[in-house]
């Protein structure tokens, strides 16, 4: 075969490949009207959302072949394990031996079998942590999960805190610092990154370290890991405080307006965002004729009533309101 024929063959082969790939890119829109395509999973079809043209049918269903109507039935029929997660020291890949002393048929084990299973559980727990770093990580992630549960933080915050702690452990930032201190600092940073912050006092309440150690460790972790964390915004505390006090959406909107007015006046600088949010909630409740006491707000926000009184007056003045009762 000549060189010219070879080049022609290669060129035809490349053109054929291009033609074969072209429909894949064109299937993102309807070939008739150019409208967006949607997938109907129940019928296994891809149809145009505008004109209804069926672009593809008899698609492969990659889901399970069984149906489940509740969580228990789903767990019983499922043949796969849980997804990997950074909230466990081994990412959930190791095997757990169940605590129920029953066999595969649901029958109770006899005394000797129970003793044997207990020994197996003990050795299994020992083998799950191979070295001191894994034992450290296991303890820290348990602390993060405990504190997050007590503070009502969502799962994404726990995941982020776990990643921050893993990075600190990998970069050898723990020597000279307690596991509890670094775990608390990681959770505090993760909550602020996710815009669901908790105050230092709230963190200290559920943590096993004091406020001084928490702030010192937090600054060190943020500096060494280069975490990008914006200053706490008072508005991010407002929904939680309003919910805990069972106040209406009107109060929440008014509190946000007061905070925005105070920001424009420049009186937020250098003041605690928790105190500003609590005072805004108290002032907004009074303006909306929904009575709430300073002690109730103080208890929810975990700050003093004196702080609420001082910030409350400043917020009202920035909004042009005078002579409101204290």
What's the number of helices?
13
Please mark out the parts with pLDDT under 50 across 5 or more consecutive residues, or reply none: 1-26
What share of the residues does DSSP label as strand, in percent? under 5%
Classify the oligomer: single chain
> What's the average pLDDT?
83
Shape: extended
Q: Please estimate the helix content.
A: 55-70%
- The ordered H/E elements are HEEEHHHHHHHHHHHH
Largest sheet data: 3 strands, antiparallel
Tell me how many strands there are: 3
Return the structural class. mainly alpha
Walk across the major sheet and give the strand order. Answer: 1-2-3
Distance between the termini: 98 Å
User: What Rg, in angstroms, do the CA atoms define?
Assistant: 29 Å
Brief sketch in words of this structure:
Keywords: Metal-binding, Repeat, Transcription, Transcription regulation, Zinc, Zinc-finger. The chain has helices spanning 3-26, 71-77, 111-128, 132-151, 155-170, 179-193, 200-206, 211-225, 238-244, 249-265, 273-287, 294-301, 305-318; strands spanning 37-40, 45-48, 54-56. Helix 4 (132-151) runs antiparallel to helix 5 (155-170), helix 6 packs across helix 8 and helix 10 crosses helix 13 (305-318).
């Amino acid at each position: 075969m000549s060189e010219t024929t070879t080049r022609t063959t290669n060129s035809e082969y490349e053109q054929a490949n291009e033609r074969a790939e072209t429909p894949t890119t064109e299937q993102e829109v309807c070939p008739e009207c150019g409208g967006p395509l949607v997938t109907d999973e129940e019928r296994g079809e891809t149809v145009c959302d505008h004109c209804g043209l069926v672009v593809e049918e008899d698609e492969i269903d990659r889901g399970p072949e069984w149906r489940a109507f509740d969580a228990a039935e789903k767990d019983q029929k499922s043949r796969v394990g849980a997804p990997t997660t950074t909230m466990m020291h081994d990412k959930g890949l190791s095997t757990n031996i169940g605590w129920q002393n029953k066999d595969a048929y649901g029958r109770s084990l006899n005394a000797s079998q129970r003793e044997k299973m207990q020994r197996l559980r003990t050795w299994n727990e020992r083998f799950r942590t191979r070295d001191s770093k894994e034992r450290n990580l296991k303890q820290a992630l348990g602390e993060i999960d405990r504190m997050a549960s007590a503070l009502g933080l969502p799962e994404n915050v726990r995941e982020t805190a776990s990643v921050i702690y893993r990075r600190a452990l990998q970069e050898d930032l723990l020597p000279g610092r307690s596991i509890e201190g670094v775990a608390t600092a990681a959770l505090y940073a993760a909550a602020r990154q996710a815009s669901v912050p908790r105050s230092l006092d709230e963190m200290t309440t559920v943590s096993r370290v004091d406020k001084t150690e928490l702030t010192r460790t937090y600054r060190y972790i943020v500096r060494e890991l280069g975490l990008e964390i914006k200053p706490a915004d008072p508005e991010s505390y407002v929904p939680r405080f309003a919910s805990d006090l069972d106040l209406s959406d009107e109060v929440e909107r008014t509190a946000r307006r007061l905070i925005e007015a105070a920001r424009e006046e420049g009186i937020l600088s250098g003041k605690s965002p928790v105190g500003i949010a609590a005072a805004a909630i108290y002032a907004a409740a009074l303006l909306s004729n929904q009575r709430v006491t300073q002690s109730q707000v103080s208890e929810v926000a975990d700050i003093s009533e004196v702080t609420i009184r001082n910030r409350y007056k400043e917020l009202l003045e920035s909004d042009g309101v005078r002579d409101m009762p204290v």
